[in-house]
Design goal:
The complex is a heterotrimer of chains A (511), B (359) and C (309). Chain A has 511 residues and is an alpha/beta fold. Chain A contains 17 helices and 22 strands. In chain A, a hairpin with a 2-residue loop joins β1 and β2. Chain A is globular and about 70 Å long. Chain B is globular. Chain B has a domain at 71-307. Chain B has 15 helices and four strands. With 359 residues, chain B is mainly alpha-helical. In chain B, β2 and β3 form a beta hairpin. Chain C is mainly alpha-helical and 309 residues long. Chain C has one domain: ABC transporter involved in vitamin B12 uptake, BtuC. Chain C is built from twelve helices and two strands; from the N terminus they run ααααβαβααααααα. Chain C has a two-stranded antiparallel ribbon with strand order 1-2. Chain C starts with a helix and ends in a 17-residue tail after the last helix. The chains are: A alpha/beta (511), B mainly alpha (359), C mainly alpha (309). At the B-C interface, α6, α12 and α14 of B face α4, α10 and α12 of C.
Amino acid sequence: MDNSEGYAIELRGIVKRFPGVVANDGIDLKVHRGEIHCLLGENGAGKTTLMRILYGLYRPDEGEIILNGQSVQMTSPRAALNNHIGMVHQHFRLVPTLSVEENIVLGLDEGTGPFMNFHKTRQKISAIAGEYGLSIDPQAKIWQLSVGQQQRVEILKALYREVDILIMDEPTSVLTPQEVSQLFTTLRTLVDDGLTIIFITHKLDEVIQVSNRVTVLRKGKAVSTLSTAETDKPGLARLMVGREVVFQLEKSPLKRREKLLEVNGLYALSDRKLPALRGVSFDLFGGEILGVAGVSGNGQYELAEVLTGLRKSTKGRILLGKKEVTNCSARKMYDLKVAHIPAERIRMGIVPALSIRENLILKKYRHHPFSHREFLDNKEIEENAHRAMSDYQIAAPSCETPAKLLSGGNIQKVVLARELSENPNLIVAVHPTYGLDIGATEQVRQVLLIQRERGAATLLISEDLEEIMTMSDRILVIFKGEVMGILDAESADIEEIGLMMAGTRHKGEQL
Amino acid sequence: MKSRLGFKVEKRAIVSGSLVFFVSLFAIFAALVVAGIFFRIYGVSPIHAYQLILKGALGNKFGLAETVRRAIPLLLCGVGLTIAFRALFWNIGAEGQLLMGAVAAAGVALFSGLPGPLLLPAMFIGGFLGGAAWGLIPAILKVMLGLNDVITTLMMNYIAIYFVEWLIHGPWKGPTARGFAYTDTFPRAAWLPTLYGTRIHWPTLVLGLVLAVVMYILVNRTRSGFEIRVIGENPDAARFAGISRFKTTLLVMLISGGFAGLAGVGEIAGIHLRLLGPTHISMGYGYTAIIVAWLARRNPLAVIVTSLLFGVIMAGGDVIKVSLGLPFQLINVFNGLILFFLIGSEIFLRYKISFFLRR
Amino acid sequence: MGWETWIITTLSRSLAYGTPLLLGTLGEIYAERSGVLNLGVEGMMIMGAYSAFTTAYITGNPWLGILVAAVVGGLFSLIHAFTSVTLKANQVVSGLSLTMLGLGLSGMFGRGWEGKPLPAAIPKITISGLSEIPFLGPILFEGQNLIVYLAILLVPLLWYILYRTRIGITIRSVGESPATADSLGINVDRVRYVCVFIGGVLAGVAGGYLSVAYRPAWTEGMTAGTGWIVIALTIFAFWNPANGMLGAYLFAALYHLSYRLQPWVSPELLKAMPYAFAILVLIFVSRGTLQKRMGAPAALSLPYTRGEE
């Protein structure tokens, strides 16, 4: 007989299958009232799926949800909200063109029928905001707000609906270290007020910092549930990965070669015609990895796109070796041996419906020997595919398999095979290990390190500070399109990087 | 514990060719059934009507000729449309491009003063250019200003229609008989040869078949075809790969408009031998070609088959009008139904329903 | 004709011809705001025109004709909603097929109705007191009919609903970010069905107006592309009912001006003017859109499935 009444929520034997993968494989979860419970696991472990089931976005194939001792059917988010469960998603569910108050009130039945009492709504929002220290302007449009402010709106949305349980899905991935501690303070205030919080993350630091208890998921199964006080980072890491994790990478000493890239006073606009890069300057040498740290949305993507010819700069110069390449086309940059590993591998990096072998020549198809004049040489293309698949260990039934059927790791390997096969001089890698499991992540990092050995200059843009700190030789911090400082990776201090990411300029020597 | 029959809907990863074929058949069948209802309203047994249509369109020499004759412009337009659709350019303007091709060809035939043997080739070139130009305008508007391709191609259809009207009532006016305006008849050198005793202008037919094969090779074996396919499947990746959306869009509309223009040449140089009112030149070929291309699943070779199918349907329209006294418009209803069921049934291609026992 | 009379007549006729454009545009705005592109407007309009005419002829009551037109337009649009929203099929082709169907059905059934005179059309109204107002009086209150006034009144109503009520917030969110709306418990499919239905009803009424009020008669294909102009006008209006009114009347005015040019320009080219205008308007407006960022509803013409991002 289990004491279900004591739990805020209980999940029993949840199973959820998608084509080709079992996302949740018989998971049990018990969350106490008034606690911050972390759901820890790698990308793809099944954490988000599980919470989406709890929030009614997915129906489980098997298992039940128990609320206050009774089994409930979460048929939709509305049912979840009726049960006082709210969720703050990783990618905010906000309508950009609507205002804060319109977003908060969206979908809510306040009993006044179709008519809106904006005055009353604004008052209520201000009251809640004041109580938890989440200041916001109710009439501002979402697209005008910063990411941290948008997250506040998300939280306000849930609080406005008087939720008892708040699910937060990777909330810190878009915040600066300072914003993260603000968030944690807010969470503790909420918990003091009686809320229960389920916090999804893959970052061990956060688990230790903020949670009371933690459940570790691995490959769709709940491996263990413990009280946070009884464990530590290595212990959690072991549970998460299933084997001892080596926190340090095998990195050979830096052998810096000649200067391969020089960026001088680069300016560029974002898609919304706002300044994205404001006078960025740095040098990059062969044989080194320059990590670019910064909160998402501070100009990193635009920098990557300008360097690879996908975006025009408005001012400034880019020199590849001795050659001026400012505002060259993407095709030209590729011909000049610049490789681009894009952030969104499925949206940009591959053509999902085309076969692996066609994807592998996505940029090379115009070159000998893959085409003669107008016609493609399918035999050469196929041979190239076989070579690439064995060199990079791409697991697939054949080279004709459509790329969309591959796993995330294999897709990334296709991208790497394609980009790196011509021995590029400059590699621009944006979030190369995002969403990959530990095995694939290691392989990708090894590939990048081999290229570094080979003498390529790599610009590594990543939101994973740990990845930047372990992989880079030097670290450049970008904030609102400006370079805050460039530090030596060995001696860099994460606090200092955090401050730079939030806008404080580095006081010491710039490397 | 009661066990219930539950079902689960999941996304299909791979779509097999045979499934596509059967789903297409299903769509046609559904359209036949619903159209049957309309036959009943007119007091005609649908089975009887369909039998008549098949016999009339395929069973005798005359009917077969009519079927092929109708299929020719559908073939040319359809092949062009598969290319446009592959690049996600929604060319609804084949009708207008066909007409402008006809206009260009008529211009060459009546006014160019070229010597006899050069006339027909010049007409085809002119027709291609006319249709291509008409198709390039919406293409340029889309890549440079982001204008919606559906609306611009549609509006251009109407502009083309009235342009033709103006020509035959105004500057190019020829003799007028019974209220219908048209230009002078073309010189003999501008007449396309037809198969003995029929109205099949075989050069256009051959051209259509050749182009269908050429387009198939283009799409699957050439660089441009590769670029078209990448843009159609994933425009972001295309940009990432440095493929020029500008050049590719212009290329597909050059082809699509040009081929429709060729269809227009065929109609006036092969059938009418003069420039007529727009609704006489094209009985909605440009729109029907959309269905032809869709049913062919954007495969240029398959268009050969689907254009023939719709040739049967259109010839069937004559049959039911003459033999059963039913309005020709019923065929347009039938076409609309096929298109409707085609896209409605695509859900079976994207999702799979599996049943299981639930405890 | 004196200048002033000329302007008054043009504006008065703009009101008359602009009404079906306005009705159609208002409906299409709602449909597209919820994220569904409805290219079947032409088909719904012509079916509305046909059903209104035949109903009015048979029953002698033109208002019944309008009612039937509204129902027919609505039913037609539900078919489009089913294929687009439930079956998640390609919305462009679905709308096109319905237009083909509408044109075909109305052409088929309408055979034999051409040339028949309508016993009773929607009566023209002149409001004696108000029509004395200088300038505005003759335009607004002389020789118009109730449907014209209905269309005008719908504008502020539909604007208010869209921008100042909960319903409007719901609709706009469904069209911008259906995943967001869904995650908050909004039934995305139902909202889309309702908005498409509104579009169909208004398109039906617009068509009925043409055959029973504007030019009481039935001719095959009498909508002559009005439905397509509605689609263009929706973009021109930036999906805002107030702009829709401006666009519809402006367009109608230009259309009538082109008739004034008849002595100098041949009629066929004039008939091409509306379509050329539509393109020119779109070109003119597109430059602003690039800067404005307030463009089409972000999810327009994209089918929504829960769980797919």
